[in-house]
Design goal:
It is a single chain. Helix 10 (about 345-365) runs parallel beside helix 13 (about 405-420). The strands form three sheets. Strands 6-5-14-13-12-7-11-10-8-9 form a ten-stranded mixed sheet. Strands 1-2-4-3 form a four-stranded antiparallel sheet. The chain has a two-stranded antiparallel sheet with strand order 15-16. Strand 13 (about 485-490) and strand 14 form a beta hairpin. The chain is α/β, with parallel strands linked by helices. It contains 26 helices and 16 strands. It folds into four domains: about 25-135, no CATH class; about 165-230, no CATH class; about 255-545, 3-Layer(aba) Sandwich (Rossmann fold); about 560-595 and about 620-695, Orthogonal Bundle (Arc Repressor Mutant, subunit A), CATH 1.10.10.10.
Length: about 700
């Protein structure tokens, strides 16, 4: 029945558009049929013939007035007026002598053909006039633009000749659609290449009086004898650049967007074969950049993301907890998967992850030989069925240069992954706090990490852009003094200024929900190779640390449970001591008895007769014995020397790594203990947390 009803509703025959205007044929047909109808009706009803002539004259006059207002050509005005008058004249004659004679019908047909031909000729004339007007307007606009381009070209030819002592010829000037600048296509004379002009970038920018944050950067052209000079005239690095709200699917094979250039173009990272290195000091926006990278990985349909962050897993927790806690739902209401596939926040979990990656790579090399032969390639064909594994290691560059025994074990595994698993679709993204010689001194990082990002934030210490982007001259930290701004270079796009997208926590949750059904599953070959370590990565006992809100972080707890590291039980608050084990409780009582009996005894290595530390001085009595190590004393001295600005665990660990081999996790434990006993004060939260010695700490306002 429904089919029958549908068939009945379908129209049959030609479809007429009654709202469409008349053309030459339909217009002439309408005019002649209308005149014939009026003449026939007038003759039958004895209508005065003069009325038809009066109506025709009024129509001719009206069309002439309207045509003059819209500036029609004279031929068009004459054609329309003549059509009205001729039609009215025939109607008047036909009403008098009869419209049904052969003479009347023949003359009417002749009039119709004439009206159609005249209308067609007038329409062609109007089209030609309109096209000519547009062409004149376009030529005038191009003349103005050409004059402006010629002025720009002449200005830069003279400037380059005067400053660089190089003669160039400008082949083209293209203004950016964003209005933030323009590009010049230059042809240097005498076999000079672009790098000769690039080394004068600062002088050229100053001579052009460009605003702060704007540059004149030279890059390679279409061939070695051409140069593209990008001139930025509007500082687009100053303001935040929000992450796009379009979470469309991506692919590692077509590039993953990480930010925008100063000309508004999106700059993408191609990580199928390349590793990446992201450096940025505290406050430069590196954490936000990591979240931007993870957002691109989450949107990709052929990527699985693994994250190692030994700083309590802070880089990956925003991508995991909303899903594990059930705080968000997919658009259809079903539970969502975490935004990343695996998160490691401890040395043990990181070793499991790296071992799994190595096992997957070795198994893929054997299992997919037939597939690679079928596809005629030596690279594993990456797809949603066989996904790429991208391993993000926060502060991973520091791990590679650490002298700590545990960090050396991780570094060895990371280098094996970088060195061996390129063809099998496992790549890494390492972050670091600075572009220093110790970070970039590793040949493996320089050779494999061709996708490089340097977020400067105006920080000049530890930012060697020459080592970060070798061969690129004229890059200065002062060009990108804003948070989230810096330089990015890839094999496809040389190092230049860029702005990282600003991604907000609510967008992370939106991306998790929007991409939950997009994450691929690890292929069976790889899953079997990874074994139980991968299959049980989300077990309750493996993720319990994510919900642990106690002051001790995961790394410190793991060190204490393993019997290594620093035991700070003597410095824990009283409420924590009450929850200690029976052995620790017995030790606490024993210490209380010793303190009660020998509390007035002088400290070891202190002068006889000393009354203890002076007022306001540093009391290390709680740290005597095995805990009073040289490394700890030096760390406390560094904290005291930092003054009111304070310092962080990473900075102290870097100072102690070469001399004592101290890890960041150990320093974190010391700092927490010193905060607990009042030796230090924590200022700030999250990645901006700093520790200040109590001698320099700001006074707290009294509580009401």
């Amino acid at each position: 029945m429904a089919t029958t009803a549908t068939k009945q509703q379908q129209p049959s025959g030609p479809v007429l558009d009654w709202a469409a205007g008349h053309g030459p044929v339909t217009g002439a047909l309408s005019a002649t049929t209308g005149a014939f109808a009026v003449a026939t009706t007038g003759a039958a009803t004895a209508m005065p013939p003069g009325w038809a002539l009066a109506v025709g004259a009024a129509g001719a006059l009206g069309h002439t007035v309207v045509g003059l207002r819209v500036r029609n050509a004279g031929r068009t005005l004459a054609t329309r007026a003549a059509s009205w008058l001729v039609g009215a004249g025939w109607t008047t004659w036909a009403m008098t002598h009869g419209p049904l004679t052969w003479a009347a019908l023949g003359s009417l047909a002749t009039i119709g053909v004439g009206i159609g031909a005249a209308a067609r000729s007038a329409a062609l004339l109007e089209e030609a006039r309109e096209e000519e007007a547009l062409a004149v307007e376009h030529r005038e606009l191009m003349r103005e633009m050409s004059a402006e381009r010629r002025a720009i070209a002449e200005e830069w030819v003279e400037r380059i000749q005067r400053i660089c002592h190089i003669t160039v010829r400008v082949l083209g000037v293209e203004k950016w659609e964003t209005g933030a600048g323009y590009s010049l296509d230059l042809e240097p004379q005498g076999g000079i290449t672009y790098d000769r002009i690039a080394q004068y970038s600062v002088q050229l920018s100053a001579d052009a009086r460009l605003p702060h944050g704007c540059t004149a950067a030279a890059g390679p052209g279409i061939h070695q004898g051409r140069t593209i000079l990008d001139v930025t005239t509007v500082n687009v690095l100053k303001d935040d650049c929000p992450y796009p709200s379009d979470y469309a699917p991506l692919s590692v094979l077509t590039g993953l967007p990480w930010g925008v250039r100063t000309n508004g173009e999106i700059v993408s990272a191609y990580l199928r074969e390349q590793c990446a290195l992201v450096v940025g000091p505290t406050g430069s926006g590196k954490t936000n950049m990591v979240h931007t990278i993870l957002a691109g990985f989450a949107r990709a349909e052929d990527v699985l993301t693994w994250v190692i962050d030994l700083n309590a897993g802070s880089a990956g927790l925003p991508w995991v907890l909303p899903a594990l806690n059930g705080d968000i739902k997919a658009p259809q209401g079903e539970p969502v998967r975490p935004g990343i596939d695996w998160l490691a926040a401890s040395h043990e979990e990181a070793m499991l992850m790296l071992d799994a990656a190595l096992a997957i790579g070795l198994r893929r090399k054997k299992a997919y030989q037939d597939l690679m032969a079928q596809k005629n390639t030596d690279l594993l064909p990456i797809s949603a069925r066989i996904p790429q594994i991208l391993l993000v290691i926060d502060e991973g560059a520091e791990i590679l240069v650490s002298t700590d025994r545990e960090m050396k074990q991780l570094a060895k595994k990371i280098l094996e992954v970088i060195r061996m698993l390129r063809a099998m679709g496992i790549r890494t993204v390492l972050t670091a706090l600075g572009a220093t010689g110790s970070v970039l001194g590793n040949l493996m990082i320089r050779r494999e990490g061709k996708v490089r990002v340097a977020l400067t934030g105006g920080e000049t210490e530890g930012m060697d852009l020459g080592k970060m982007f070798p061969g690129r001259r004229g890059l200065r930290v002062a060009q990108a003094p804003y948070k989230g701004s810096g330089f990015m270079g890839t094999p496809e796009s040389p190092g230049a200024l860029f702005k990282a997208w600003r991604i907000l926590p609510n967008q992370i949750r939106e991306i998790i929900a929007a991409t939950s059904d997009r994450h691929p599953l690890l292929d069976d070959v790889s899953a079997k190779a990874a074994g139980p370590a991968y299959a049980r990565r989300w077990d309750a006992d493996r993720t319990a640390w994510m919900h642990d809100l106690t002051p001790d972080d995961t790394s410190t707890a793991s060190q204490e449970s393993a019997g290594g590291g620093l035991n700070l039980s003597a410095l824990r608050p009283e409420q924590q001591t009450q929850q200690a084990s029976p052995e620790e409780e017995m030790l606490r009582q024993f210490r209380e008895q010793i303190d009660a009996q020998f509390g007035t005894a002088p400290e070891p290595q202190s002068p006889a007769g000393s009354d203890g530390p002076a007022a306001g001085g540093l009391n290390l009595s709680a740290l005597r014995g095995e805990q009073d190590s040289p490394a700890q004393r030096e760390a406390l001295a560094l904290l005291l020397a930092a003054g009111r600005e304070g310092t962080g665990a990473s900075a102290i660990a870097r100072m102690l790594t070469d001399t004592h081999g101290t890890t960041r996790q150990t320093v974190v434990g010391w700092l927490k203990a010193w905060v607990a006993d009042g030796t230090a004060v924590r200022v700030g939260e999250g990645t901006k947390a700093r520790y200040v010695h109590r001698q320099h700490a700001p006074e707290q306002p009294p509580e009401d």
